[in-house]
Automatic annotation (TrEMBL):
Family the UniProt entry places it in: Belongs to the HpaH/HsaA monooxygenase family.
Domain Acyl-CoA dehydrogenase/oxidase N-terminal: 30-113
A Pfam family assignment: Acyl-CoA_dh_2
Organism from which the protein derives: Streptomyces sp. SID12501
Entry's Gene Ontology BP terms: fatty acid beta-oxidation using acyl-CoA dehydrogenase
Residues forming coiled coils: none
All residue ranges annotated as the Acyl-CoA dehydrogenase C-terminal domain in the record: 261-390
Lineage of the species this protein comes from: Bacteria, Bacillati, Actinomycetota, Actinomycetes, Kitasatosporales
InterPro entries recorded: Acyl-CoA_dehydrogenase (IPR050741), Acyl-CoA_DH_C (IPR013107), Acyl-CoA_Oxase/DH_mid-dom_sf (IPR046373), AcylCo_DH-like_C (IPR036250), AcylCoA_DH/ox_N (IPR013786), AcylCoA_DH/ox_N_sf (IPR037069), AcylCoA_DH/oxidase_NM_dom_sf (IPR009100)
Name by which UniProt lists this protein: Flavin-dependent monooxygenase
GO cellular component terms, A-Z: cytoplasm
Keywords from the named record: Monooxygenase, Oxidoreductase
Domain of life assignment: Bacteria
């Protein structure tokens, strides 16, 4: 039996309904710690504790364990408010919120272990770089290094994506051309994993996305979740199987959880810009105040419109996911591809808004104490994430619109 989670218990007076307001109240603290978060390459303990006490990590924890099962639109609002204060803190929160949702799809016995505290922090890696070898008793031995383990130093559990491989000297493969390997999520206590100090990056540098290493880690059968059936809508949890909240497609949820990071960054950039233009001029021009220049009016309005469009797109696909969950209506491939495309396009619009603001902010904005330079690097990093990569997502949707298969099961 794994040890109970070591996170700080949330205040008993906290409720799910007040989550977004509590996060907004924390923004000054999160913003103050953002430079240190980037320098130390992990979210500071003070911010982790504050987010925990606010109940952020309860958003997707089942109510029977003290969780909130927060509506998706509430989660989007919460994650965007964190990102508005610090992109790295927002990114860590979205990954751990998402992985808690996946944990709630595991067999109930595993959930009893993982959700020993409703404030448990669950991380995960979604790239199958580690391997698992089945044992006669149904357990697996896991080995390998997995990169991008966001927030691993502050996590209690980690969901490793692993490829199932036959034991040495055996072959379980049927005759004929080899098919894709079976993929599993394996729930592992962080105490069973080694953390490599290898997160040296230019954007989202404070997210603490180091690599983790499994060395002959034994994972019992009840702590594995096959990825294939999950993508088809089959979950292992008997208790949560009939709950519409846990019937939402995981991959579409990550398409909903990730854009709020871009929205928060873009909103904060516009707010900072419209404040700074009152206190600086435009060098080598007659404008003593940037806010008086016509070019500034055009830049501010253009950025604001891009952000508004991104907000409307987000509302559209979040509403679709929530309504489908409520009615248990299946998706078509075109609808899934459209949601993924919308998430990427939202991120592209936010990036365009931030790039426009950055180009209008002058050389003084390059100083480390000016947040826009960090925002630029964070949005560029986020745009490379596979869930919201604009070009890839548009291609997938375009294939479907052109009458072809999407070319991926990850919809």
């Amino acid at each position: 039996m794994a040890q109970p989670a070591t996170s700080h218990p949330a205040d008993a007076a906290n409720t799910a309904a007040g989550l977004v307001d509590r996060i907004r109240a924390l923004q000054p603290l999160i913003r103050e710690h953002a430079p240190r978060t980037e320098q130390e390459r992990r979210v500071t303990p003070e911010v982790v504790a504050a987010l925990t006490d606010a109940g952020v990590y309860r958003m997707n924890v089942p109510r029977r364990y003290g969780g909130y099962q927060s509506p998706l639109h509430t989660q989007v609002d919460a994650l965007s408010e964190i990102a508005a204060a610090c992109g790295s803190a927002g990114f860590m929160a979205l990954i751990q919120a998402g992985c808690a949702y996946i944990a709630a799809l595991f067999p109930d016995e595993a959930q009893d272990e993982i959700f020993a505290s409703p404030d448990v922090r669950v991380g995960g890696t979604l790239i199958p770089d580690a391997t698992a070898v089945a044992q006669p008793d149904g357990s697996y031995v896991v080995n390998g290094t997995s990169a991008f383990a966001t927030g691993c130093r502050d996590a209690d559990w980690h969901l490793l994506t692993v490829r199932v491989e036959p034991a040495a000297g055996t072959s379980d493969s049927p005759p004929g051309p080899p098919g894709p390997p079976e993929l599993l999520w394996a729930a592992v206590p962080m105490t069973d994993l080694e953390i490599l100090d290898d997160w040296y990056v230019s954007g989202l540098a404070g997210s603490g996305s180091n690599s983790v290493v499994a060395r002959d880690v034994m994972v019992p059968a009840h702590r594995v979740l096959p990825v294939g059936p999950l993508l088809d809508g089959t979950i292992a949890s008997k208790t949560n199987a009939a709950d519409p909240f846990y019937g939402m497609p995981v991959l579409l949820l990550f398409c909903a959880w990730t854009p709020p990071n871009a929205l928060g960054l873009a909103r904060s950039a516009l707010t900072e810009f419209t404040e700074r233009i009152h206190h600086r001029g435009i060098t080598y021009t007659f404008h003593e105040r940037q806010n008086e220049a016509t070019v500034t009016h055009l830049q501010a309005a253009e950025a604001a419109m891009k952000i508004t469009c991104a907000e409307l797109l987000t509302t559209d696909f979040v509403t679709t996911i929530e309504s489908r969950a409520a009615t248990r209506t299946p998706y078509t491939s075109a609808e899934r591809a459209r949601i993924r495309a919308q998430s990427g396009y939202t991120t592209r619009l936010c990036k365009e808004a931030i790039d426009l603001i950055a180009s209008a902010s002058g050389a003084s904005s390059l100083h480390r104490e000016v947040p826009i330079q960090r925002t630029v690097r964070d949005i560029h990093a986020l745009s490379l994430h596979s869930f919201v990569n604009p070009t890839t997502n548009l291609e997938l949707y375009g294939r479907v619109l052109s009458g072809l298969d999407a070319g991926t099961p990850f919809l």
